[in-house]
Specification:
The chain is mainly α. It has 3 domains: 62 residues, Signal recognition particle alu RNA binding heterodimer, srp9/1 (2-Layer Sandwich); 94 residues, DNA polymerase, domain 1; 188 residues, hpI Integrase, Chain A, CATH 1.10.443. Helices cover 47% and strands 9% of the residues. The chain has 15 helices and 10 strands. The strands form 4 sheets. A 3-stranded antiparallel beta sheet has the order 1-2-3, with helices on one face. Strands 4-5-8 form a 3-stranded antiparallel beta sheet, with no helix packed on it. It has a two-stranded antiparallel ribbon with strand order 6-7. Helix 8 packs antiparallel against helix 10 and helix 8 crosses helix 12. It starts with a helix and ends with a strand.
């Protein structure tokens, strides 16, 4: 009974001509015996298609020209794909991200399966399991994106007949909601960090909207304290156990010049003194010219500062947020102070105007409220009379 639920009974053919059957997912397959006990499996959308391919394979076998793809598990294929296809063609950070997505979320359940045996049902069940375990839909969606890309490459290489990732319903991807400080919360936070060793870092993030990777890569040569400006030229890319690398920002718009308010100028002057003190205390100090170096002169790590940030918020009596919400606070304050949206886009380094508006207008209700209230001027008349009703009768 078990075999009947997974595939139809193979159709008998002549000796050595192979067999044809249909899997439970509807895919037609052909199986052909080779030498040394090996077999070659052929796939197609219809039985006729498989029969045609099988006849060609029989002829190739008899001629000694048949090529057999190596049997491999999904884990074995993913390892080679990451090394041979992804690593040479993507940024180190993307390669590491792809590797982590597969290692953490896909391979523990599916890695031992043969690459050719994976079906859409396998993926659908896995995504349902991950969702029930509490994994976010965004993480599941991004893991599926990586797997989909890998299986598409397997299809190009002729290792599978079709990608099972094409027939899967993936949980809808959500965007992490911006959670900027409200004005009263911002005041509490600023009071809590006053005099703290990390105050210059938090002030710089709040006053420039830099991403953490950008502030970690910031060099003194990128900063002009006299002109009150800094230039974003690099970002830090972590490479797993191999450490870090300086990389150019991902998009052209991310390479930008940012004017700095007086509070940031003051914070950076104090930070220069601290960086010099750290250098004097260290035995060896790399010549990286970093604005915010670690105690040994290397770029600071976000994982460490996430913990520091959360401890600071807890001591201040504020709820947890992401460090990235300091960047959101910068943007929302710009909006709340009626700065032009295009200016906000340029300062944030967004690649499109739509990204800026979609993220931040909903985060600043006062901006929308002020925009609506400004329409009152449209109904104002110079003599102070009601714009709709005047002289006892309705205006036409």
């Amino acid at each position: 009974m078990a075999n009947e639920t997974t595939r139809r009974r193979p159709t008998k053919r002549g000796n050595g001509e192979g067999s044809i059957y249909q899997r439970a997912d509807g895919l037609w397959c052909g199986s052909l015996s080779l030498d040394r006990g090996r077999r070659k499996t052929i796939y197609g959308k219809t039985r006729k298609d498989v029969a045609r391919k099988l006849a060609i394979a029989v002829q190739a076998r008899d001629d000694g020209t048949i090529v057999v793809a190596p049997r491999q598990t999904l884990a074995q294929f993913i390892e080679r794909w990451l090394e041979d296809s992804v690593k040479p063609t993507t940024r180190p950070r993307s390669h590491l991200s792809y590797k982590d997505r597969m290692r953490l979320h896909i391979l523990p359940d599916l890695g031992a399966l043969q690459l050719t045996a994976i079906t859409p049902q396998h993926l659908q069940q896995l995504y349902s399991k991950l969702l029930k375990s509490g994994l976010s839909s965004t993480t599941i969606n991004s893991s599926h994106m990586v797997l989909h890309r890998a299986l598409k490459q397997a299809l190009r290489w002729g290792l599978i007949a079709r990608s099972p990732a094409d027939a899967v319903d993936v949980p809808r991807k959500g965007r992490p909601k911006a959670d900027p400080f409200q004005p009263d919360e911002l005041g509490i936070f600023l009071a809590a960090i006053q005099g703290d060793v990390n105050e210059p870092l938090w002030i710089t993030l709040l006053g420039t909207g830099l991403r953490f990777g950008e502030v970690a890569a910031l060099r003194w040569s990128d900063v002009d304290l006299d002109e009150h400006s800094l230039t974003v030229r690099h970002t830090i890319v972590r490479q797993g156990n191999k450490g870090y690398a300086f990389a150019e920002p991902k998009t052209r718009s991310s390479r930008r010049e940012i004017p700095m308010p007086a509070a940031v100028i003051d914070a950076l002057r104090r930070q220069r003194i601290r960086a010099t003190e750290l250098q004097l205390l260290a035995r060896d100090w790399p010549d990286l010219d970093l604005v915010f170096p670690s105690a040994i002169g290397t770029p600071i790590r976000e994982t460490k500062y996430i913990e520091v940030f959360h401890e600071t918020l807890e001591h201040a009596g504020l709820r947890r947020r992401r460090i990235h919400d300091l960047r959101h606070t910068y943007a929302t304050r710009l909006f709340a102070l009626n700065n032009h949206p295009r200016a906000v886009q340029e300062l944030m380094g967004h690649s499109s105007f739509e990204i800026t508006m979609n993220i931040y207008t909903a985060s600043v209700p006062s901006v929308l409220r002020d925009a609506a209230n400004s329409l009152d001027a449209m109904f104002h008349v110079p003599d102070g009379s009601d714009p709709i009703v005047a002289n006892g009768r309705r205006r036409e």
